[in-house]
Amino acid sequence: MAAQYQFVMRSGPTVGKKYPLDAQEVSIGRDAVNSIAINDAEVSRRHARMELRGSAYVIQDLGSTNGTFINGTRISGMQVLNPGDTVSFGEGIVLVYEPMADMNATILSTKAPPVTAQRLAPAPVAIPRPAPVAISRPAPVSAPFSRPAPVYSGQVPAGPAATPQEVVPARKKFPMWIIIVIIVLVLICVCGAFFEAIDYFSLWCKILPFLVPLLGGTCA
User: Which of 18, 43, 58, 218 is the most exposed place for a label (fewest CB within 10 A)?
Assistant: First the structure.
């Protein structure tokens, strides 16, 4: 089978090396038994496989460690290759998929006559095209009339620039912890005064007789 496409190494251990694709199935990997063997740590032993379908090759990653990328995008299934695509194995191995040189020559020679015929035919058609372009230009004249409207509407709300006056009155918040400390101090003072009065008038046995034994005293 004559090779119609080839890989050219752009980045890797052998830059510039060409790999003709002349088989129905092509295996790619680090192992020497592969159709295309690339001895580099970026490449798995069985990295990817290619298959000729019709006139183009499709490529599939075989669960490699560093992945297979086409034009910078990692593939997960079968992907059709187009001439000029860059195929990367990991980050350091980059191959370019392109037709063989002789195939390019035959393709260009066969396509040359119809291309020139197609380019000459539209030449007279291009003459009437400038006319509608000149007619369509006066249409934007209405733009100056529509522009002032949003300008005025945008300036009107700009007037109430007195918003800082509404923010001027600063709200003073009394710290909550100071209030709690004051309440606790008041309660301590009240309790202290209460027990001081009981002790002063000797009212322990009358008001709080159950505390007297706890304090080491007795009620007569």
Answer: 218
